[in-house]
Design brief:
Layout (H helix, E strand, L loop, with lengths): L2 H6 L2 E4 L6 E2 L4 E2 L3 H10 L3 E5 L9 H10 L3 E4 L4 E4 L2 E5 L4 H13 L3 E6 L3 E5 L2 H7 L18 E7 L5 H7 L7 E7 L2 E6 L4 H12 L6 E5 L5 H6 L2 E5 L4 H4 L4 E3 L6 H8 L7
Parallel strand pairs: 1-4, 1-13, 4-5, 13-14, 14-15
Antiparallel strand pairs: 2-3, 5-6, 6-7, 8-9, 8-10, 10-12, 11-12
Helix pairs in contact: 2-3
Amino acid sequence: MSKALKDRIRIVFFDIDDTLYSKNAGLLSPGVEKAFRGLKRRGVIPAIATGRARYIFPAPLEAVIARTGVEHFVTINGQLNLHGQQVVTDYPFAQADLERITAYLVGQGMGVCYAERTHMSVISMTPAFHAALVPIMRDHSMDRPHEPGSPVYQLVVGFRESQLAGIEASGILDHGRFRTVRWHEDASDLLATEGSKMRGIRDVIGTLGLTLDNVMAFGDSLNDIEMLSEAGFGVAMANGHPEVKKYADHLAPRQDEDGVWRALVELDMIDPD
């Protein structure tokens, strides 16, 4: 890749599931640590941008983060953004909205989890929703209750695509103030419409004195569209959703083919050894 790209990119944000890590196999791509270290040797910051909360990162990735000193995190789809343990920005639900939306979803028999500041709490559960959550929660417990009044940043909801029209017709999304983003046939995230990984990325790079032209982003899923389309350079995984690939500047090999490391080498963002 041209010298101009490696000269202008100063930070690279990585999605986790099916980009760095296979949630179904429970395996981290073997080149992730080499990739993070290689970027840092070039003076480029490796960072995370994920739908996951910080406390449910996969254990193998946590170990790499600890060894390589990664410290910038866009989490819960940009609703809670961190520098180390310090909150950069956060966007919790208003209590009235939370109660109204939850009451409808639970009343329809749907599974609901809350993504909170320090833990996930289960409000209601179904067998299909539980099966969708198992790969995400492989290393973590969901047995902590919600404390009334505790900030909630995102709802994770168990419903199928065929039920979306009913949700939209119900009015709980408040005429476009809220949206759903599907990540499994039986599960979607529900968050404020303006909420996205891209908003979190803007917040984080603002603290670093960087612009979007300095940002590279890797992703595979529908919640990655904003960051791939608006970052200075977007990379989609070959195993990603077909719609996501339309917004990328480059296509990386599959996650299970060490796609992140291989793409960074191909783009001359890291050395090959």
